[in-house]
Amino acid sequence: MYIIIVGGGEVGYYLSKALLNEGHEILVVEKDATRSGFIIDELGSVCVRGDGCEAATLAQIGTGRADMLIAVTDDDEDNLVACQVAKHKFNVPRTIARITNPKNEAIFKKLGIDVTISSTNIILEYIEEEVPTHPLTHLLTIRDKGLEIVEVKIPADSTTVGKAVKELSLPPESILSLLIRKDQKPHLFTANTVLQAEDQIIAVTTPESEEALRAALRGT
Amino acid sequence: MKVVIMGCGRTGAQLAGLLDADQHQVTILDTDTYSFRRLPPDFGGTALLGNGLDEESLRKAGIEEADAFVALTQGDNRNVMAAQIAKHIFDVPKVICRIYDPIRRELYNTLGIETFSPTTIFSQMLKERLET
Known about the structure:
The complex is a heterodimer of chains A (220) and B (132). Chain A has helices spanning 10-21, 33-43, 55-60, 76-90, 104-110, 119-130, 210-218, and strands at residues 2-6, 25-30, 47-49, 68-71, 94-99, 115-118, 136-142, 147-153, 175-180, 200-205. By secondary structure, chain A is an alpha/beta fold. In chain A, the strands form 2 sheets. Chain A has a 6-stranded parallel beta sheet with strand order 3-2-1-4-5-6, sandwiched between helices. In chain A, strand 7 and strand 8 (147-153) form a beta hairpin. Chain A is elongated and about 65 Å long. Chain B is α/β, with parallel strands linked by helices and 132 residues long. Chain B contains 5 helices and 6 strands. The N and C termini of chain B lie far apart (39 Å). The interface between A and B is medium-sized, with 20 and 19 residues.
């Protein structure tokens, strides 16, 4: 695949390195002369100096035949424009934008960017996971289906300890997928599975019913 | 008319003053309060510290009831993003956006945003002046 990467910062550099290793044809567009010089020294002639938001630059590097454009500069608005120019002027089939402000996720989606990666959200999720008392942890978001995979831990003082799954009023969009219990192999739920203290539950849910799921599993 | 202007540079401040003098209800946004020194001393509108890319700041500026939004910061991309938020998220009836880069301007014009490029307009003007 021919992949264009806009922004040769840390993310752009390591991303290029990884994609090159996978055998893709890549080209980095970087404004800063020192930075683009560094990338050329490290990775070979896979970097041009220029503004990836400018149609002239993108035309020069053959964006018309690109399979994908990934914009990973530090500025959300620059990433948005690079993706929009690629999409609307050069018909690039897939555009991916890095965003720093999680609020922009919905806006970008509405403005036609195929995929957004929010570095702030990802860091938050990882930190959440490490906070042991956190009631519900996001593990994975299935973006195009509006679903997410979450983990819920059952504390010892939860009112649902000792109850069977069929007695819980789970929100309709949620499915309990996997039960991880101390010193046991992970196993699947049945209607008669009884919750125990310290159970770890992996469930599929929607962002809207996340709170209802947490309440149903941990009691109030 | 209720107008929200993003960017209190020379153009933004002057436009705000003109609209205010014509009894329009003007709110001008900038990320630096020092920029508001450019507003005329008798400016009767609202000068608000805030980022026009942030939905919260835009709401505070009254974008939900605004009749028009004008993006006039120094950054083309910032203007383009704010203009699209105003148009597609808040459904502001009239959205105008300054884009210095003529090629980018053309693209966003075809994407349905009213844009103008001082670069194109000014160089055209200079050419005409030189040729007469």
